[in-house]
Amino acid sequence: MAESDNPIFRIADRAAGLRASGFDVISLAAGEPEAPTATHIVEAAVTAARDPRTHHYGPAAGLADLRERVAAQHPDHVTADHVQITIGTKHALHLALGALAGPGEEVLVLRPSWPGHVGAVESVGASVVPVLVDRDGLTSVDALEAARTPRTRAVVVANPSNPSGVLHPAGLLAEIAAWCVDKDVWLVSDEVYGGLVFDADPFSATAVVADSSRLVVVDGVSKVHAMTGWRVGWLLGPTEVVAAARAQVSATITHVPSITQYAALAALTAPVDADTVADYRASRDLLVGKLAQVPGVECPTPAGGMFAFPDVSKLLSAEHPTAAELAAWLLDEAHVAVVSGEVFGDDGTLRISFALDQERLTEAADRLVSALTKAGS
Ligand SMILES: Cc1ncc(COP(=O)(O)O)c(C=O)c1O
């Protein structure tokens, strides 16, 4: 999809235009926290920039300390040898899929899902086979088996999901992983929102699967640590996949810039502030609670991530026939930017971020409640 066709960019452009005309626009459209990166992380980068060791080439694999730190978040059988540092989670997805699939082969992608999963599969020349999630936003071994062909090489599951915030529970993930081993299909577990889980303990697929021989985890510091612009992520999996990814990194970018790797190391060294997750949970509850006041809107409570994903199909009408048109109207009417579900493969929904301070979120949510109530009446 060209950027100009992407509803997220269209909404962002319109929001910028309204702001330039002096309107108080609140954006709940971005897929990133509004907060800046924590000071201790920024300071670690400044210190690293002053250290001449970062002024020269480093290892293609990524800094040993960072790889060890990543491995330490996983069960003991995962070591630094199973980790490749990448330019963000998106790069890790591209490298993982490049190692696992190619032209003429298929990758199962859940729908709705973050469009980057489709883009990553296409970037390696493989074909996307969409697998619709069930009413609860989950997939199952039966749904995956129905979509599998002899060309299927991998399935991508984000846990929790963007846009729905649905979390595949540990037992279900373990079943899917076992099916993958049985069918020689790789499970690519996207855990970039894995630290933002609200009603349960967070877990990685590495901790719940019995056999990790067909498991690759992609993750990064972008979301949980408010570091989207720093571009540090990683891929974690069997050494043959890591070696293929490393060869690509070495042949293309040489390695991820050392300064940002030191920033990521600082992020992973201090535990995620319990208040951060509690704040996200409170923001989720605030937004979901407000949306529940709108007749006709159904908003499941997201188990994790940073988005509510309400079904607004009952509000669609001759005036606002699609969720995209409703989102455009909400921007004009309420000066609140949200993303329509079509970009994720679901036409009757909106994706609404709650990753901003609660005062602004309350203001935005109140505006949405009155505008959506008006749209439905
Ligand atoms: C599910 C999912 N995976 C990966 C990414 C990309 O993360 P990064 O910024 O680390 O490349 C995003 C970004 O929105 C996402 O939503």
TrEMBL record:
Residues of the Aminotransferase class I/classII large domain: 24-368
The protein's enzyme class: transferase
InterPro entries for this protein: Aminotransferase_I/II_large (IPR004839), AspAT/PAT-like (IPR050596), NHTrfase_class1_PyrdxlP-BS (IPR004838), PyrdxlP-dep_Trfase (IPR015424), PyrdxlP-dep_Trfase_major (IPR015421), PyrdxlP-dep_Trfase_small (IPR015422)
GO BP term (any one): amino acid metabolic process
PROSITE patterns: AA_TRANSFER_CLASS_1
GO molecular function annotation: pyridoxal phosphate binding; transaminase activity
Cofactor(s) for this UniProt protein: pyridoxal 5'-phosphate
Keywords: Aminotransferase, Pyridoxal phosphate, Transferase
Enzyme Commission number(s) from the entry: 2.6.1.-
PANTHER family: ASPARTATE AMINOTRANSFERASE (PTHR46383:SF1)
Similarity annotation: Belongs to the class-I pyridoxal-phosphate-dependent aminotransferase family.
Protein name stated in the entry: Aminotransferase
UniProt source species: Nocardioides pocheonensis
